[in-house]
Amino acid sequence: MHEEDFCCSICLDVFIDPVITTCGHTFCSFCISQHTILHHNCPMCRQKITMTIPNRQMESCTLRWLEDNGRGTTYSAMKTSNRKKRLYMDRAQMVIWTALADMKNFTGSLAEILSKSSVENDLLRKEVERLLWLYKDVGIVDHRNVNGEVRFTLKGAFQ
Predict the structure, then answer these.
(1) The pLDDT of residue 69 is above 60
(2) Is 120 part of any domain?
């Protein structure tokens, strides 16, 4: 077996917490969750992704391959890192939806959104900002400059 057999086609690294999609493709759990923020189709075949299922067999094979190639200790570190990223992504989404959905037609700056949700952690701040820009790209959130300050608004269909 070769390294390509154990690589996610999104991050191009070995599978971490691999999941299988309804169309049969396998990806890292974190990678496909990030992908589905913007797209609801498989990045390989473009079929609609309706669910993912943990692929424990692939995880076991990947871990065995890594151990056979002297990289077994890196897997747990990568898995922990992905879980932390996922936690921050989930918390950032909660911050955004709380701030933007609680008040109809709420428009606020990043600072106002963060203060409304009492966010003081720098990593969480960065993740909230990153997700706001992602949401802008797919039309969930609108933004405009007001006196040099970027302000975000939840678009009509999502209010």
Answers:
(1) yes
(2) yes
Can you read off the two tokens belonging to residue 99? 């701030």
Identify whether the C-beta of residue 52 lies closer than 8 Å to the C-beta of residue 21. yes
The answer to whether residues 109 and 51 belong to one domain is: no
Residue 7 domain-assigned? Answer: yes
In this structure, are 7 and 60 located in the same domain?
A: yes
| First-last CA distance in the chain | 50
Residue 13 sits in a domain of what CATH number?
A: 3.30.40.10
| Side chain identity, residue 146 | V
Could you read off the pLDDT of 82-138 as tens digits, one per residue? Answer: 788 877 777 777 777 766 666 555 666 677 777 666 667 777 777 777 777 777 765
The answer to whether 116 and 98 have CB atoms below 8 angstroms apart is: yes
Instruction: Report how far residue 82's alpha carbon sits from residue 65's, in angstroms, rounded to the nearest whole number.
Output: 20
pLDDT digits (tens, 9 = 90+) for 136-148: 765 666 666 666 6
Helix (H) or strand (E) holding 159: none
E-strand ranges in the chain read 18-21, 26-28, 52-54, 107-109, 141-146, 149-154
Which residues, in sequence order, are bridge partners of residue 44?
none
Q: Give the total number of structural domains in the chain.
A: 2
